[in-house]
């Protein structure tokens, strides 16, 4: 079922598939980016360990700055650093950065078009017990609406490392979204990754539905695809890791190949990845779409698995959405 | 920085007069924009661009230049007029202020006019950016940076939380090359600062955050230049110069009136102002002279 050119984790469907927090990949990638380019610097707003910026801070103390609990200053100081030639990575929880400092990001980073990297950790409902205040569900919308901003949502820790290395050198304001919990490792070191180029992980000649997912929902989408295949329903699965710039060509191709789309994201359905897909397809190839995400609500405390299920992001929900959208196709 | 001779002082006064007249002409032509702040800051801009700054107007991206961040972007008419009179672009271009296709946007946009170090307008974030520039220098050169980072701020934007995050940060970093000048003109859009949201005791606030504080008359070139000189000599502490200025300075009808914060002169008011400024010559004096 899996597209072999994607070189995915061969143990992907094992019950004991390796589970690693996506943020760990960021931490590793940042150290490597720092080794490759001495202009890479890092700033953190009192969350050094949990954002995984700790490794960089230890290896390059002279290039790391603790900003304290001050997210507006975090990104605006970074803007000043970038204007002097530095490549600053700024880390906090997504609900605070870009949640609290959106105007500073707009005016001093994207309006100036300077290469500051916003690292939004603890995004999504899977943050778990901390509850709704800390489960950022609006960040993709906030960031993708800004001209000049690149928005990347890695599907696992391996991809997060590659994404971190890529945005360190892209010369653009960039947002990278990270999750807190341990999640399945879907890709491998040799899986293709390019910012702005979606990866079609399951790519049958003829699919009934194109499932498009980002973040850890990619794993859930693959699990749903396997279950659907067992029922005789073939779907494609696309890892849309870059929300901006959007790979309209691949989105068009998978939509045209199936005639129906299901989008899956750990974000509000308003303004997120699904909205970006819909905006694109409305222009190129309108098809019925089912949007899976948080349906205009806030989260609450709980374990990641039970929360994802409660808010309609479980494997069974994806299976159900696929069947529903098939019913909406024009015969 | 060179000492200020009497001849140079005379030249600065003339330049400040040219810049004030340009400000009035620009605002009348644009039909919108801010009047009081630009007139009040003309002497400080003149002192900086014609005496203090290490810069090369004909090589604006010279990497070793001092950096100047204008945090309160709404006073950009005086910024643009100063840049033009300093040779960054033709004075003639000033009349395009706020027009479609102009490089002189209503608030500075670096993408349109690369001679400004940053885009600004939304208040309270310039100091952080200046701190970022000072930090980049500190990372590369420790306390031995050969560049000064200047940040010009309004008093009104001291009401922004972001400003105080930066004030804390600069105190922590013990910058040796950060000099902030606050335009203490006591007015903001809705009224006098002390009525809207009191800032005093202001000098004590900065001292308490481990800054070196200097208070000056913002229309006295000796004061301005000696304060900057003192600021350059201070080691291991960020410097704030609280410059007491008269909003609308140079046109008595506009002075000290908050109503002139955010509106331009009409054609008639502009003519009256230009007449005042023409007859003023080098007569702008501080109230203490």
UniProtKB/TrEMBL annotation, chain B:
What CDD domains does this protein's entry cite? TPP_TK (cd02012)
Give the record's family classification: Belongs to the transketolase family.
- The UniProt record lists the keyword Oxidoreductase: no
**Organism classification:** Bacteria, Candidatus Vogeliibacteriota
Required co-factors: thiamine diphosphate
Record's protein name: Transketolase
* Domain (Transketolase N-terminal): residue spans on this chain: 18-269
Q: Which InterPro entries does UniProt cross-reference here?
A: THDP-binding, Transketolase_N
Which Pfam family name is an example for this entry? Transketolase_N
Q: Which UniProt keywords apply?
A: Thiamine pyrophosphate
Q: Which domain of life is it from?
A: Bacteria
- Gene3D superfamilies given in the database record: 3.40.50.970
């Amino acid at each position: 079922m899996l597209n072999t050119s994607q070189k995915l984790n061969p143990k992907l469907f094992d019950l004991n598939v390796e589970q690693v927090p996506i943020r760990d990949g960021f931490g590793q990638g940042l150290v490597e980016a720092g080794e490759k380019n001495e202009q890479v610097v890092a700033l953190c707003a009192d969350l050094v360990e949990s954002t995984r910026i700790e490794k960089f801070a230890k290896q390059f103390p002279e290039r790391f700055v603790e900003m304290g609990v001050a997210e507006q200053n975090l990104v605006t100081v970074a803007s000043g650093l970038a204007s002097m030639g530095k490549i600053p990575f700024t880390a906090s929880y997504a609900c605070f950065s870009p949640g609290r400092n959106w105007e500073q990001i707009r005016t001093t980073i994207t309006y100036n078009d300077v290469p500051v990297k916003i690292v939004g950790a603890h995004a999504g409902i899977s943050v778990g017990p901390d509850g709704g205040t800390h489960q950022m569900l609006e960040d993709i919308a906030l960031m993708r609406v800004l001209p000049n901003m690149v928005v990347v949502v890695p599907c696992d820790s391996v991809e997060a490392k590659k994404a971190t290395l890529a945005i360190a050198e892209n010369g653009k304001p960039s947002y990278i979204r990270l999750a807190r919990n341990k999640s399945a490792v879907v890709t491998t070191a040799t899986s293709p990754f390019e910012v702005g180029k979606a990866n079609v992980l399951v790519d049958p000649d003829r699919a009934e539905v194109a499932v498009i997912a980002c973040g850890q929902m990619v794993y859930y989408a693959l699990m749903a695809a396997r279950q659907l295949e067992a029922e005789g329903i073939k779907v494609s699965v696309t890892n849309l890791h870059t929300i901006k710039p959007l790979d309209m060509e691949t989105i068009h191709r998978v939509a045209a190949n199936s005639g129906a789309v299901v989008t899956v994201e750990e974000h509000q359905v308003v303004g997120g990845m699904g909205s970006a897909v819909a905006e694109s397809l409305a222009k190129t190839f309108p098809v019925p779409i089912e949007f899976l995400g948080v349906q205009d609500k806030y989260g609450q405390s709980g374990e990641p698995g039970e929360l994802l299920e409660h808010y309609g992001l479980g494997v069974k929900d994806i299976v159900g959405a696929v069947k529903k959208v098939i019913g909406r196709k024009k015969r | 920085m060179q000492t200020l001779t009497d001849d140079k002082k005379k030249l600065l006064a003339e330049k400040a007069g040219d810049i004030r007249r340009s400000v009035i002409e620009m605002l009348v032509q644009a039909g919108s924009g801010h009047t009081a702040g630009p007139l009040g800051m003309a002497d400080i801009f003149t002192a900086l661009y014609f005496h203090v700054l290490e810069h090369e107007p004909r090589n604006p991206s010279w990497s070793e230049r001092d950096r100047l961040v204008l945090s309160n972007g709404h006073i950009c008419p005086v910024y643009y007029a100063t840049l033009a009179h300093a040779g960054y672009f033709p004075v003639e271009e000033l009349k395009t202020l706020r027009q479609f296709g102009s490089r002189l946007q209503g608030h500075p946009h670096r993408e349109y006019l690369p001679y400004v170090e940053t885009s600004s307008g939304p208040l309270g974030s310039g100091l952080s950016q200046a701190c970022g520039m000072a930090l980049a220098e500190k990372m590369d050169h420790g306390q031995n940076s050969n560049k000064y980072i200047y940040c010009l701020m309004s008093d009104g934007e001291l009401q922004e939380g972001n400003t105080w995050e930066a004030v804390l940060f600069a105190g922590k970093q013990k910058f040796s090359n950060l000099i902030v000048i606050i335009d203490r003109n006591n007015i903001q859009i809705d009224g006098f600062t002390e009525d809207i949201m009191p800032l005093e005791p202001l000098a004590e606030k900065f001292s308490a955050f481990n800054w070196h504080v200097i208070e000056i008359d913002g229309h006295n070139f000796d004061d301005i230049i000696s304060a900057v000189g003192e600021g350059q000599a201070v080691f291991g502490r960020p410097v704030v110069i609280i410059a007491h200025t008269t909003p609308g300075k140079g046109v008595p009808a506009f002075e000290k009136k908050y109503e002139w914060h955010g509106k331009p002169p009409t054609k008639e008011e502009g003519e009256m102002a230009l007449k005042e400024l023409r007859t003023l010559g080098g007569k702008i004096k501080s109230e203490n002279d």
